[in-house]
Amino acid sequence: MNEIADHLDDGLQILFIGFNPSLRSGEVGHHYANPRNNFWRILHQSGLTPRLYDASEDGELLKLGYGFTNIVARPTRGVEDIAREEYVAGRKLLRAKLEKYRPKVACFVGKGVYTEFTRRSKADWGFQDTVEPVVDGVREFVAPSSSGLVRMPMHEIVGIYRELSQFTEENEA
């Protein structure tokens, strides 16, 4: 199955970083394409997007200043199918992407994504202002996973993402 292309550019407000694409995303070639994934609804309900986007429009979010990448590019059924070596290589690649593109915010979609990348043992939701960022000048934000398997109530998830929306509004002015 093909890897999904990153959506990267200079001057991004937010780079959304996932573990890896789902099998459905791999089939259709778009980020967060599994119909049980709430990513697109979360972005809209939190105010990050002016309307509800479809996964097939993921490239259009570059116009809003949002990009997409993953620690591991290979689609799998679940994170348990990712090999340790893939994480090691993925951490290096992700760091290089952050250093090259320097988004204002690296948004890790899930605590596990953040801890896997940073090798830190824990994280709180939101901006990680109490620790040094891995890449100087790139603020780190930890958001709940948008997977339909997450047990956190949707309004709580949306509330955490709303912090990002407020940040982008404040930084546009």
TrEMBL record:
GO terms for molecular function: pyrimidine-specific mismatch base pair DNA N-glycosylase activity; uracil DNA N-glycosylase activity. InterPro entries: MUG/TDG, Uracil-DNA_glycosylase-like, Uracil-DNA_glycosylase-like_sf. Residues 7-153 form the Uracil-DNA glycosylase-like domain. Keywords: DNA damage, DNA repair, Hydrolase. GO terms for biological process: base-excision repair, AP site formation. Transmembrane segments: none annotated. It comes from the Bacteria. It holds the Pfam family UDG. The keyword DNA damage applies. PANTHER family: G/T AND G/U MISMATCH-SPECIFIC DNA GLYCOSYLASE, G_T MISMATCH-SPECIFIC THYMINE DNA GLYCOSYLASE. This is Mismatch-specific DNA-glycosylase.
